[in-house]
């Protein structure tokens, strides 16, 4: 029986900024150390259920990472924090013993410590220091999210591993790349399996931004994948991982914290894949997670730190005790007094807030009043979901959200989100093509600090989506966040493509630099690193999440080659790249090679989706009439089995249809674009034949559709 052990709040926290110090002396309980974005490092313990501060530093630059260190094979009780480009070291009593200003030009994003070795990463740069002396350097092809080093005492050499945004773990040797490990999503966090890399010391657990979890063995020559857990429940991305034996069965469980507030405990019941044993939902993203004994000697806890700085301990201590025979379970005396003291504290805080609010009202009405805009932190994430080809926009605010206004200058659909309890209202938009295509207002319920929206874009239509975030604070203030909807917005990076598909080719030649053509590709496609990759040329592979078509882009100084099995993808690239080159007054020599077989291939990919959506729409339109018949006749035994099945599945069908508005129209639009683009490359305008095509699409067979494309 797990219960909430204690609640403490610090400032807003970044990922991996809370750790438990090893237990010292006779006391078995551990101290908690946490760093926040106000730059304050706090160390506290729990005594009789109340937090007792050991030390607290003064505010400063925000703390991006916190790690524990010390000499190898000794208790790791020295505290290291990364702030800006500096690393500071503190003893467990709070005395600063290190201030190391690195030579990094960017802020530190990730850090790992092993004995005298310090591993630091900025956005693209990795640095290895030994005794604060620069030793190795590596420039990554994509953003680095986390860094780890295999335990030196087990593997007898320094083996750093970088978690990079392009779905790759990069294993280094000195300043060189030893090999790459392909993983199923952008890795956001790394942890040593079992806390020590397992028996071999080579096992690493990774978590991805799309919620997948995996274990890979990093041997000296090649990776050995062990297991992978897909995100079947569509939960949030993974931000933190720890290993701890919370079940006291002699095997450490895997503790996982996600960005939607879900805390999970996986156990290893067999030598194979881990099994989800427990989960617990917090109201905001979990930035750090640890297992240990903090609140009460003899009772272990899972300690989670959330984005806005709440530290919550989930304890194994029983909150209830057994009554006498036949009596119900009763709250233990300890728990009753804890609840009573919390109630008193809440009442005291409410009175304090009322007093401060009155003071503010009086001072704001005086003649000498000066209003200051309150600052607030927003944690935002805009990512493409490969399972339903939609974008998730997640906004997490330090204070409760009042209103979020969403505005877009390109046509987008807002999809339903189950977790979203906000009330949405839409405003009419201008007919001006450069004006608003979407204006939607989300009014949040009290105490909502996290809002998730789902958006589906149309490829070929590009522009900006803006979110105006207004929290429930006085005076009213708002922050604006912008997100680019790219021309090929539904494409996602992938490790490889099928080269046997019929491909269309677009070739560009001209007086452009490698950096210029890279900036055009960044403008067109998501998940491309903003920094120009090292080397003379680069190849990226993409997959369309809606249709499953693919794209290969290879470019270098003065030359670019783009291959796709979808003519519309090539058409969009041709139009956008020509426009970008014209803006910079660069003449392009454009050539293309169109494979007629690719049109038939793309139609075969679209048609099953089209058929399914047409059938779904037909079933949904029948539901009302069938329900009316059911009411009039009293039963449905006289109906054919197909109609009875529609009535049985009515709720699921309506739910699915509601979640995918305009899905059918999107497919019609894609087929129409494919038809126009096929003939555009021949120099023929077939827009007059589009009404005929739309007529044909209603209940159309695949062969008739292909015949229409070939006969036109």
TrEMBL record:
Q: Give start-end ranges for the coiled-coil region(s).
A: 332-359, 612-660
Q: Enumerate the spans annotated as BBS7 helical hairpin domain.
A: 596-709
SUPFAM superfamilies in alphabetical order: WD40 repeat-like
Mind telling me which InterPro entries this protein's record contains? Answer: Bardet-Biedl_syndrome_7_prot, BBS7_GAE_dom, BBS7_hairpin, BBS7_pf_dom, Beta-prop_BBS7, WD40_repeat_dom_sf
The Gene Ontology CC terms held by the record are: axoneme; BBSome; ciliary basal body; membrane; neuron projection
> One Pfam match, by short name?
Beta-prop_BBS7
- Residues forming the BBS7 platform domain are 491-593
Residues of the BBS7 GAE domain: 374-483
GO BP annotations of the record are: intracellular protein localization; non-motile cilium assembly
* Assigned keywords, A-Z: Coiled coil
Q: Taking every annotated instance into account, which residue ranges of this chain make up the domain BBS7 beta-propeller?
A: 18-316
Name it. Answer: BBS7 protein
Tell me what organism the protein belongs to.
Answer: Odontophorus gujanensis (marbled wood quail)
Supply the source organism's classification: Eukaryota, Metazoa, Chordata, Craniata, Vertebrata
């Amino acid at each position: 029986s797990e219960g909430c052990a204690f609640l403490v709040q610090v400032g807003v926290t970044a990922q991996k900024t809370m750790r438990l110090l090893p237990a010292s002396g006779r006391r078995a309980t551990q101290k908690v150390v946490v760093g926040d974005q106000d730059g304050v490092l706090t160390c506290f313990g729990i005594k009789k259920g109340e937090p007792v501060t050991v030390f607290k530093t003064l505010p400063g630059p925000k703390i991006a990472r916190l790690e524990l260190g010390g000499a190898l094979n000794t208790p790791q009780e020295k505290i290291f924090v990364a702030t800006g480009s500096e690393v500071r070291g503190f003893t467990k009593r709070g005395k600063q013993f290190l201030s190391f200003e690195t030579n990094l030009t960017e802020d530190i994003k990730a850090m790992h410590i092993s004995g005298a070795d310090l591993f630091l990463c900025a956005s693209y740069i990795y640095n290895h220091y030994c005794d604060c002396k620069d030793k190795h350097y590596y420039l990554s092809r994509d953003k680095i999210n986390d860094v780890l080093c295999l335990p030196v005492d087990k593997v007898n050499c320094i083996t750093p591993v970088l978690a990079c945004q392009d779905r790759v773990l990069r294993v280094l040797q000195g300043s060189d790349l030893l090999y790459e490990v392909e993983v199923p999503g952008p890795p956001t966090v790394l942890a040593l399996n079992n806390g020590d890399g397992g028996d071999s010391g080579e096992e690493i657990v990774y978590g991805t931004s799309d919620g997948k979890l995996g274990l890979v063995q990093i041997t000296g020559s090649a990776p050995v994948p062990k297991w992978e857990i897909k995100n079947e429940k569509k939960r949030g991305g993974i931000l933190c991982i720890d290993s701890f034996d919370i079940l006291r069965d002699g095997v450490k469980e895997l503790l996982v914290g996600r960005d939607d507030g879900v805390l999970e405990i996986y156990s290893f019941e067999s030598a194979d894949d881990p099994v989800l044993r427990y989960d617990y939902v917090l109201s905001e993203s979990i930035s750090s997670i640890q297992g240990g004994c903090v609140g009460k000697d003899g009772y272990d806890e899972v300690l989670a730190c959330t984005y806005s700085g709440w530290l919550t301990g989930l304890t194994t201590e029983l909150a209830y005790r057994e009554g006498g025979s036949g009596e119900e379970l009763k709250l233990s005396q300890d728990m009753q007094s804890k609840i009573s003291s919390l109630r008193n504290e809440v009442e005291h805080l409410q009175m304090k807030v009322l007093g401060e609010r009155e003071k503010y009202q009086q001072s704001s009405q005086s003649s000498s009043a000066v209003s200051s805009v309150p600052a607030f932190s927003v944690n935002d994430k805009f990512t493409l979901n490969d399972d339903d080809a939609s974008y998730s926009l997640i906004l997490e605010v330090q204070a409760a959200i009042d209103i979020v206004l969403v505005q877009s200058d390109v046509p987008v659909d807002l999809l339903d989100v189950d977790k979203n309890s906000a009330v949405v209202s839409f405003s009419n938009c201008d007919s001006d093509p450069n004006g608003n295509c979407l204006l939607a207002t989300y009014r949040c319920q009290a105490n909502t600090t996290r809002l998730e929206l789902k958006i589906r874009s149309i490829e070929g239509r590009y522009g900006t989506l803006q979110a105006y975030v207004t929290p429930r604070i006085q005076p009213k203030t708002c922050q604006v966040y912008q997100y680019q909807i790219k021309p090929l917005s539904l494409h996602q990076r992938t490790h490889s493509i099928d080269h046997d598909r019929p491909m269309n080719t677009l070739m560009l030649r001209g007086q452009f630099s490698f950096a210029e053509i890279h900036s055009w590709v960044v403008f067109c496609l998501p998940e491309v690193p903003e920094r120009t990759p090292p080397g003379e040329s680069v190849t990226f592979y993409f997959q369309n999440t809606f249709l499953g078509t693919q794209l290969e882009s290879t470019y270098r100084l003065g030359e670019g080659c783009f291959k796709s099995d979808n003519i519309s993808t090539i058409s969009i690239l041709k139009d956008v790249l020509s426009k970008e080159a014209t803006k910079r007054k660069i003449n392009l020599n454009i050539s293309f090679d169109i494979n007629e077989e690719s049109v038939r291939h793309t139609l075969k990919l679209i048609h099953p989706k089209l058929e399914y959506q047409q059938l779904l729409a037909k079933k949904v339109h029948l539901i009302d009439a069938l329900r009316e018949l059911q009411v009039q006749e009293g039963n449905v035994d006289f109906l054919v089995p197909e109609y009875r099945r529609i009535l049985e599945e009515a709720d699921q069908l309506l739910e699915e249809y509601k979640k995918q508005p305009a899905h059918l129209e999107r497919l019609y639009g894609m087929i129409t674009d494919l038809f126009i683009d096929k003939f555009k490359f021949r120099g023929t305008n077939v827009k007059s034949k589009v009404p005929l095509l739309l007529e044909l699409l209603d209940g159309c067979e695949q062969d008739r559709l292909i015949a229409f494309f070939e006969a036109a």
